[in-house]
Amino acid sequence: MPAITTERVTNCLLCGRSGAPLFQGLQDRLYSVEGEFGFARCEDCGLVWQSPRPVTEDIPHCYPEDYEPHEGAMQGEGPVRPASGLRDAMRGMILSEVFGYSRLKRPEWWAPVVGRVLGHVPMLQDRARYGRDELCPPFVEGGTLLDIGCGAGGYLASMKALGWQVLGIDLSPQAARTAWESYGVPVKVGTLETVDVTDRSMAMITMVHAIEHVPDPVSHLRQCHRVLQDGGRLVLTTPNVAGFMSRFFADHWMALDPPRHLWLFTPDTLRACVERAGFRVERMLTRSFLSQVNYEKSLQIRREGHARDNRRLGYAGPIARGLHRLERGLLPFWRWGGNELMISAVKQEG
Fold first, then answer.
1. Considering the domain boundaries, does residue 328 fall inside one?
2. What's the number of domains the chain is made of?
3. Could you say which of 160, 165, 244, 303 has the lowest number of CB atoms within 10 Å?
4. 92-142 pLDDT, tens digit each
């Protein structure tokens, strides 16, 4: 890989105040980008950012050809299967009657009542949404769902099967080809700032572990605001720097991921960024999604200094499983303790 030129970022994006050093002298623990990187934290609002970090023109060099997102690329189950069996029948009734997925509607007179009753059971509602929470949103007939940082398009394929029109944006030409060849999902290569997306053309925008990768998250969220229709919804997920895993591992936390993660958010700082871009936050939560593998990688970093060899995963399996269960057990008492932040926000009409 070519050498990376770095720069220091001294002031908080939200407060404008100088940041205090948090971690220094870090190396790339998941791939092999050369250089030393660090993180700073605003002592007023708690926003964390990478400093020193790659200069903007060198950011693409931080992603090798075999790069795969590590903290949430696969949300829940794979593409939707044709409805069959009791479980899929229940799922279809909940999705059609509670979330408006009209193509799953059943003709029986009793189906609407059963769907609404089942939809009041949180566990059943969660399973009906494939464990995706806000990433399986209320359906918008004829609406387009845009996924930024879509990778090879598995999530978009699932939403297409549920009836959405879909579009992806990703930096990788290879991922774009795979999405089209495997799923028939169109993907534009580039960023929201560089590709052509018409103003007010999207009903829904999702960003799964993507906001932490952009040089200026507030500016990027304003671009999302521009292309969303009035009343359109934004849903994003990102690592939670205020959660249990981050506090437990400190500088060994795998989701620091220098040099790729340029920003790390607490619930308050993520909300502030989204609201500053013009959105109204409807729901925010933390989850333990994929935390077991993230615990394994963090334990590997603590023990060996890196987690580049996926074949080594599993050596800390019992410990990782125990920590994963502990995190899940904490969530009813510590709502912000999860490894992953999720926020759902709406572009207000006007």
1. yes
2. 1
3. 303
4. 999 999 999 999 999 999 999 999 999 999 999 998 998 899 999 999 999
Residue 194 lies in a domain: yes
Rg (CA), the chain: 20
Residue 31 lies in a domain: no
Residue 77: pLDDT band with limits 50, 70, 90: very low
Give backbone dihedrals phi and psi of 64, rounded to 5 degrees, phi first.
-70, 165
3 state SS for the chain: CCCCCEECCCECCCCCCECEEEEEEECCCCCCCCCCEEEEECCCCCCEEECCEECHHHHHHHCCCCCCCCCCCCCCCCCCCCCCHHHHHHHHHHHHHHCCCHHHCCCCCCHHHHHHHHCCCHHHHHHHCCCCHHHCCCCCCCCEEEEECCCCCHHHHHHHHCCCEEEEEECCHHHHHHHHHHHCCCEEECCCCCCCCCCCCEEEEEEECCHHHCCCHHHHHHHHHHHEEEEEEEEEEEEECCCHHHHHHHHHCHHHCCCCCCEEECHHHHHHHHHHCCEEEEEEEEECCCHHHHHHHHHHHHHHCCCCCHHHCCCCHHHHHHHHHHHHHHCCCCCCCCCEEEEEEEECCC
User: Within a domain: residue 18?
Assistant: no
List C-alpha distances in Å: 6 to 1, 277, 306, 329: 15, 27, 21, 40
C-beta of residue 138 within 8 angstroms of C-beta of residue 132: no
CATH number at residue 285: 3.40.50.150
